[in-house]
Design goal:
By secondary structure, the chain is α+β, with helices and mostly antiparallel strands. The chain folds into 3 domains: about 80 residues, Rossmann fold; about 120 residues, D-amino Acid Aminotransferase, Chain A, domain 1, CATH 3.30.470.20; about 60 residues, Dna Ligase, domain 1, CATH 3.30.1490. About 30% of the residues lie in helices and about 25% in strands. The chain has 8 helices and 13 strands. The strands form 3 sheets. The protein has a 5-stranded antiparallel β-sheet with strand order 11-10-9-12-13. β9 and β10 form a beta hairpin. The longest helix is centred in the last third of the chain and has 18 residues. The protein binds adenosine-5'-diphosphate and magnesium ion (MG). The site of adenosine-5'-diphosphate (ADP) has 19 residues, from β6 and β13.
Length: about 290
């Protein structure tokens, strides 16, 4: 049973984590003392917390080395959730290749390592860094924009970042994507999210503008998302929290766009009181 919990955020994320104002009071009502802390604040004494939960550390991608060191250090003295091997694996979108190998339907993806020649699919496509969140560094391009896309890929490669190229799924602009949230490995609730992705340009803020709405996931969506979560559970243990972002492919079938085990928003404002209860129970358990 957790009694003292660190809810870990980032300096620039303070006041922008929509889950926090719901979860923190609910945890306190459940008898768990919570501090909202900043991951790179040297004054935090991590050993004071029996559980440390990564939540809105949305600046980690820009300081990856420091964040990885922080994970290792903190894990020595407190029960870090999700645990650091799981987070490490999930910080790099090349995990999509592992999910694909495990039979999970994922968005069709080509991976380009630093040094690989950029090449693009027919039609519209998306370029994104393997390490990134909040749509930072993601842009879409059309068939006449290969020169610009090549500059984008090369810039990432030069910085030592692996690159993902995916066909642009037309349904994302129309229907958005569907985050499915899991607590303690079990499906809790879903939402619908629309992101405005820049054409041939990228986001500089902490995250792109989003419009969110509640969504009732259908059975087909839950099956696909659960499959992704089960792959994680088999490999690293059951994740305390997980979010699977599904999109619809051109055949109308659900595919995983992202699996988020590090710092996903959990769409608690769009969820029921039951969902909040499941989250609090998962945070307090064990
Ligand atoms: N293959 C794709 N087809 C259409 N839109 C995409 C595709 N990949 C990404 N996007 C858009 O870009 C946004 C950011 O990409 P995503 O893979 O979710 O990375 P991040 O980790 O930055 O959230 C998505 O929310 C979606 O709107
Ligand atoms: Mg995303």
């Amino acid at each position: 049973m957790t009694t003292r919990l660190a809810w870990v955020s980032a300096r620039d994320a303070r006041g922008r984590d929509a889950d926090e104002p719901l979860a923190v009071p609910a945890l306190q009502r459940a008898g768990i003392a919570v501090d909202v802390v900043v991951w790179d604040d040297p004054a935090v004494r991590w050993a004071d917390y029996d559980r440390t939960v990564v939540r809105s550390t949305w600046d980690y991608a820009q300081r990856l080395g420091q964040f990885l060191t922080w994970l290792e250090t903190v894990e020595q003295v407190t029960d870090l959730r999700n645990p650091s091997p799981m987070l490490r694996w999930n910080l790099d979108k090349r995990y999509l290749a592992d999910l694909d190998r495990a039979g999970v339907p994922v968005t069709e993806t080509t991976f380009m390592e630093p040094g690989d020649r950029p090449h693009f699919p027919v039609g519209d496509f998306v370029v994104k860094p393997a390490v990134g969140a909040g749509s930072r560094g993601v842009a879409s391009y059309g068939p006449t924009q290969h020169d610009m896309a090549r500059v984008h890929v090369r810039r990432l490669q030069k910085a030592g970042v692996s690159v993902l190229v995916q066909p642009l799924l037309s349904s994302v602009a129309i229907d958005g994507e569907w985050p499915l949230v899991f607590f303690a490995g079990r499906y809790s609730h879903a939402a619908n999210k629309r992101v405005v992705l820049p054409r041939a340009g990228t986001i500089d803020d902490l995250f792109a503008d989003e419009t969110n709405a509640p969504h009732v996931a259908d059975a087909e969506q839950i099956v696909v998302a659960q499959k992704a979560v089960d792959v994680v559970a088999a490999r690293f243990g059951v994740p305390l929290y997980a979010r699977v972002d599904l999109v619809r492919d051109d055949q109308g079938l659900p595919r995983v766009l992202e699996l988020e085990l590090v710092e996903p928003s959990l769409f608690l404002p769009q969820a029921s009181a039951d969902a909040l209860g499941h989250f609090v129970a998962a945070l307090g358990a064990g």
